[in-house]
Design brief:
The protein is α+β, with helices and mostly antiparallel strands. It is built from 2 helices and 3 strands.
């Protein structure tokens, strides 16, 4: 699906801040920012990414903070009551 089609399906711009332990120095935390369109409140795409992380990457997850925007809704169409046309003034030579 295109991004526009996903938005129409209820997907929202989602950002996650992922804190993880640096593999060589586990007492230190590193931050990773993840951004995608996802479905709130279950966030299946983010959960899939985090499952992949835990299965394939060395940095153990510490915490994840998630923020998403409001669902995009369309405004009702309004008909203009007046249309003005501007024309350029003739130039003098």
């Amino acid at each position: 699906m295109t991004e526009f089609e996903l938005l129409l399906q209820g997907y929202r711009p989602t950002t996650a801040e992922i804190l993880y332990h640096i593999p060589d120095h586990p007492v230190l935390l590193q931050s990773f920012i993840w951004q995608r369109l996802d479905l709130a409140p279950r966030f299946p795409i983010l959960c899939h990414f985090l499952d992949f992380w835990q299965a394939n990457l060395d940095g153990k997850l510490h915490s994840v903070r998630v923020a998403c925007s409001e669902r995009i809704v369309s405004e009702p169409i309004r008909v203009a009551g007046l249309v003005l046309t501007l024309e350029s003034a003739p130039t003098l030579h």
